[in-house]
Amino acid sequence: MTERMTMAGAINAGLRAAMERDPKVLLMGEDIGALGGVFRVTDGLHKDFGDARVMDSPLAESGIVGTAIGMAMRDYRSVIEIQFDGFIFPAYDQITTQLAKMHYRSRGTITLPIVIRVPFAGGIGAVEHHSESPEALFAHTAGLRLVSPATPQDAYDLIQQSIACPDPVMFFEPKARYWDKGDVETSRVAAQLDQPEGEALATAEMAKARVAREGADVTLVAYGPTVRLALQAAEVAREEGTDVEVIDLRSISPLDSDTVVNSAKRTGRVVVVHEAPTSFGSGAELSARVTEQAFFHLHAPVLRVGGFHTPYPGAKFEHDYLPSLDRVLDAVDRVMAH
Amino acid sequence: MSRVARPLGASVDAVGPLSSDGLVQLLTHTGEAVENETFSPYAAHLSADDLRAFWRDMTVLRAFDLEATSLQRQGELGLWVQSLGQEGAQIGSGHALREPDFVFPSYREHGVALTRDVDLVDVLKIFRGLQHGAWNPKDHSFHLYTLVIGSHALHATGYAMALDRDGLVASGDPDRDGAAVCYFGDGATSQGDVSEALTFASVYNAPVVFFVQNNQFAISEPATRQSRVPLADRGKGFGIPTVRVDGNDVIACHAVTQWAVRHARSGGGPVFIEAFTYRMGAHTTSDDPSRYRSKAQESYWAERDPIARLETYLTARGELSDEFRAEVEAEAKALCERARTAVRSWEREPLLTMFDDVYALPHATVEAERAWFERYEASFADGETAAEGKAHR
């Protein structure tokens, strides 16, 4: 069955489906109940599932993650909403020190199937701490998985697969794309999760990148908020005679470097685009992997387009701070010059 | 909760977190029984056998603790964290628990571990660097040690919230009901996570007992650096009933914990207990308390030893026979011998197990690195590992 949905609506529908499938699934967060969350992603769920399953939490991010860990030890699957990217740091210790390491330190006796939803990235004219892209900080931590959808379809599938996954998953939602619409096929993921090996199938699929557009000259790698930008750049580049392949990573941890490396071996040119600062970012990791695994196929150095090594600037600067169509095309031109 | 003021005598401080103000006590430090209207009923069920069992556990624990310290000094353990002096607080409270109560310890709770049937010898695996978690928490209703101070207060609170959801609080059958019990120290009360745990526990009315062992030191810093009021007062601002108990009185610790878990299990919500005790040993084997505290203070607390106190009481009543003492001594000796033998015989698990259990399901980065490392190790022709000092070429 296919329905037209916004990305926010697709996440909402995915949460609803997960809650209907498994009574142990709970939502926790600030203002997610009667209000439906500051972005209304949980709209209507409190009304239908009640206080016990859609929990308005005290205003304490560490407390939300920490109590979710305790509840997971009695088999509850909490889906946590962190209100904005910049508010995740009070929970950073619980996420990286406790949540990420518990399965390892308990020698596999404790699994913590917790999903942490993080509306992230910029472009909405917000105030300080509301537009950040801290994904690399979590991708650097063993024990966490990290995905970011770019389309309503992936948002719908990935949220349910993340909830089914036995490992903790950081779910980075590109807030500027919340209201983009797309067709969402709703029966496939349900059928997958109904299978006996559903958790494993879902977890494996979550980790796969998607070739969003095929091309022969340059591989443009993006995820979350920059996938649409990469596709736009590919359209413009085609008019200028360059055939750009666009890869939507979907997963940052694990990173599906095979898909990127295979593409790089064909095109010989790679540009990575993300909103996060490029320095020590996921583009740097990808660049290292492509260099290690496809060095003799490369015609040009791997380039990165992203944020700068500054705090996220005031909203009047963000148009210039964020990767733009021009900056992406400039990078494409530079790799094509080799 | 009314507090019964029963000063211990000379204390190290007149007011604040190091005062002996308002401590519940059922056995004085000279071993005399005292009545407490509120809490004596919670110790009334204790038979002479029960008290002998407390004494046995405390005695065995101390012998083990000293053995582990020796093993560290001999280089067999990287570190040891002594529970010396806190046996009364740990054994007394631990024996107030039963299924489905679940304990969230910090890292000094070897005594509580003993009451949860964790093999103390296994605990040494952590300190020999073999594994981070040496028991299955589910088998003992005893979580792994938490080394980052205070983080587990939230886990205990979440667990308690889940007990409530699972119908294991105020179920109508008191034998089914459970509580989470979280142990931490005076230093932890300054951590934000502990404050958040108190908030969550309070507003969700979670069946969790916060059991603070105020052993007066966070490594070298006195409890006065954490608070200017008794630590028990921390609970009040959250609307959580609090009790201050003499932590070296094993009977009082047992009674107060009995009261607290029954309160929590029956739907009364969280309780905050401060057990006022003294860390008779160092923070760990890496510490040197002579740099920050006086011999006089140590002597003062040596006179308040929790084991000696119960021993005096039982001996005066003729309930500690030579035969029983010999039996306990033999038990302690056997445990120490087993610890020595085990520690010296343990081998590290195969090298590649360090890649196990990072995730519950395969993760490409871990799998790729494991495969690479396996090839790398196999590349040493004579089968020895790089770690054993063989050159690759």
Q: How would you briefly describe this protein structure?
A:
By secondary structure, chain A is an alpha/beta fold. Chain A has 14 helices and 14 strands.
What can you see in these coordinates?
Chain A has 338 residues and is of the alpha/beta class. Helices cover 40% and strands 20% of the residues of chain A. Chain A contains 14 helices and 14 strands. In chain A, the strands form three sheets. Chain A has a seven-stranded mixed beta sheet with strand order 3-2-4-5-7-6-12, sandwiched between helices. In chain A, 57% of the residues are buried. Chain B has 393 residues and is of the alpha/beta class. Chain B has two domains: 13-345, 3-Layer(aba) Sandwich (Rossmann fold), CATH 3.40.50; 347-393, no CATH class. In chain B, 40% of the residues lie in helices and 8% in strands. In chain B, a hairpin with a 2-residue loop joins strand 4 (217-218) and strand 5 (221-222). In chain B, helix 4 runs parallel beside helix 12.
User: What is the correct CATH architecture of the largest domain in chain B?
Assistant: 3-Layer(aba) Sandwich
Class based on secondary structure composition and strand pairing of chain B: alpha/beta
Strand content of chain B: 5-15%
| Main sheet strand line-up of chain B | 1-2-3-7-6
Inertia-based shape of chain A: globular
Structural class of chain A: alpha/beta
Tell me, rounded to a whole number, the average pLDDT of chain A: 98
Strand percentage of chain A: 15-25%
Percent helix among the residues of chain B? 40-55%
Under CATH, the homologous superfamily of the largest domain in chain B reads: Thiamin diphosphate (ThDP)-binding fold, Pyr/PP domains
Radius of gyration of chain A: 19 Å
The first-level CATH class of the largest domain in chain B is given as: Alpha Beta
Query: What is the tally of helical segments of chain B?
Result: 13
Tell me how many strands of chain B there are. 7
Q: Biggest β-sheet of chain B: count, sense, barrel? A: 5 strands, parallel
Spans of chain B of at least 5 consecutive residues whose pLDDT stays below 50 are 1-11
Q: Could you tell me how far the N terminus lies from the C terminus of chain A, measured between alpha carbons in angstroms?
A: 47 Å
Proportion of residues in helical segments of chain A? 25-40%
Number of H- or I-type helical stretches of chain A:
14
Query: What oligomeric state best describes the polypeptide chains here?
Result: heterodimer
